[in-house]
Write a structure and sequence with these properties.
about 290 residues, mainly alpha, rod-shaped
């Protein structure tokens, strides 16, 4: 404990402005010399019948010692005040940005309650998984029945999307982009200020999970979830109805839908993580 206090004092001393340190280095030793001179003079009777000189010397001694101490104390108080102002500003910035992130994330979901939104996302993940399975199974039995299974699972996934999100196809990507932009501001700009000011951030596990999830949204997969895949689905519908459709057209359609299903899986998993992590974000700067 004593060692820590000593280190803290040394650190505070180093952080003092140079002019104040110079005054302290000169004034305090000089004041000690004058005080010693006064004590010796009292013992030897130098100041007898010299009241003005005695007062002048004692006042000068007090000035040499008192001014440096006063400057050090005032500088310390000013430093504490500056730290408090910086901490308050960082806290306010953290609270505002965390609230903005939470509001933007929530604006894209139909359900505001965490458990309800989480249930919708789990149903969507299940529906997309069924769609993925149908698409990946199609090359093994490229029949009209397989094409019908792909179309039906696509529609079920579409229904799950409509149930989970308020966004439509033309606003889904801008919503994900806004989520990503505010997160990067929170992570790259606000977090360092909070940590420097000693203000609460979030647990490392939550931070890593959110950063990884948003990285998915930064990729090229974020627009796939809302695409209606009109061209590939028309090829499958012709196949189901027995209308002429080339083998290469069907293979391209299935390949495109397979990429869609895989990309959608990444987006849904990322959104599940982000939605579940909102309580951690809400605790930033509290």
């Amino acid at each position: 404990m004593a060692r820590q206090r000593l280190l803290s004092l040394v650190t505070r001393w180093i952080q003092l402005p140079k002019p104040i340190r110079r005054v302290a280095w000169v004034g305090i030793p000089s004041g000690i010399v004058c005080a010693a001179l006064g004590i010796v003079g009292d013992g030897l009777g130098w100041w007898d019948d010299r009241s003005f000189l005695t007062n002048l010397l004692s006042s000068f001694t007090g000035l040499l010692i008192g001014v440096p101490f006063a400057l050090v104390v005032l500088s310390h108080l000013g430093s504490l005040q500056a730290e408090a102002v910086a901490q308050q500003a960082a806290r306010r910035r953290g609270l505002n940005t965390a609230l903005e992130f939470e509001q933007i994330v929530l604006s894209g979901f139909r359900q505001l309650e965490l458990d309800d939104a989480y249930a919708d996302l789990i149903r969507l993940r299940t529906a997309n998984q069924q769609f993925r399975q149908a698409v990946h199974a199609w090359p093994k039995t490229p029949s009209p029945a397989s094409s019908l299974a792909v179309s039906e699972t696509f529609e079920r996934r579409h229904d799950a999307i409509q149930a989970a999100f308020t966004s439509r196809a033309n606003s889904f990507v801008p919503w994900l982009t806004s989520v990503s932009e505010v997160w990067h501001r929170l992570d790259m700009e606000v977090r360092p200020r909070l940590e420097d000011a000693g203000v609460q951030w979030m647990a490392r596990a939550d931070h890593v999970a959110l950063r990884s999830a948003v990285r998915v949204l930064d990729g090229r997969v974020n627009g796939r979830l809302m695409s209606n895949q009109g061209g590939p689905r028309r090829s499958l519908d012709r196949h189901v109805r027995g209308e002429p459709v080339t083998e290469s057209a069907l293979e391209k359609a299935i390949e495109h839908l397979r990429d869609d299903a895989d990309a959608a899986h990444e987006v849904v998993v990322a959104l599940i993580t982000i939605r579940k992590s909102l309580p951690a974000v809400n605790g930033v700067a509290r």
